[in-house]
Amino acid sequence: RLATAPEGEDYGLGFYAEYLSQQPDMSAEAESGRARQLDARSQHDVWDALSGFDVPTFVCGGRYDGISPPENLEAIASRIPGAELQFFEGGHIFMLQDPAAWDAILEFVSR
After folding, report:
1. What is the pLDDT of residue 16?
2. 60: region left, alpha or beta (phi > 0 left; psi from -120 to 50 alpha)
3. 3-state SS, residue 75
4. What 8-state DSSP symbol labels residue 94?
5. 3-state secondary structure (DSSP) of residue 21
């Protein structure tokens, strides 16, 4: 329903195989935890529930995020009544890459 992974890939463990192979060596426990996290994400689907949200919602992300691409955030925000959507300069860790992100988030939660 959301943006698809590159052809021949999926958003389960396969999608992150190259990323994981480039990470520093980790303990077996850390690797197991990462694998479980990715598996849980691949099975989590709240798409149909989004239209029932009845709370102020701020959907935000990085313009260059390859893990949570902007088109996914646009789709999510379009399903939530009254959701606000904002993109920031950066990737998946946009909150560290664009100082304006924290100000926008704090402004939203302080309303």
Report:
1. 53
2. beta
3. helix
4. H
5. helix
Instruction: State residue 43's pLDDT score.
Output: 84
Looking at the chain, which runs of residues are DSSP E strands?
58-62, 84-88
Structure tokens at 87: 């993109």
- Closest to 73 in 3D by CA, of 96, 52, 94: 94
Which of 41, 33, 32 is closest to 10 using CA atoms? 41
Q: Residue 17: what pLDDT?
A: 60
Mean pLDDT by 10 residues, the chain (111 residues): 45 53 76 85 88 97 90 96 96 91 97 94
C-alpha distance from residue 83 to each of 6, 65, 87 (Å): 28, 20, 13
Q: What does 95-110 look like in DSSP terms, one character per residue?
A: HHH-THHHHHHHHHHT
Alpha-carbon torsion 45, 38, 4, 87, what sign?
Answer: positive
What's the CA angle centered on 22, arms 19 and 28, to 5 degrees?
90
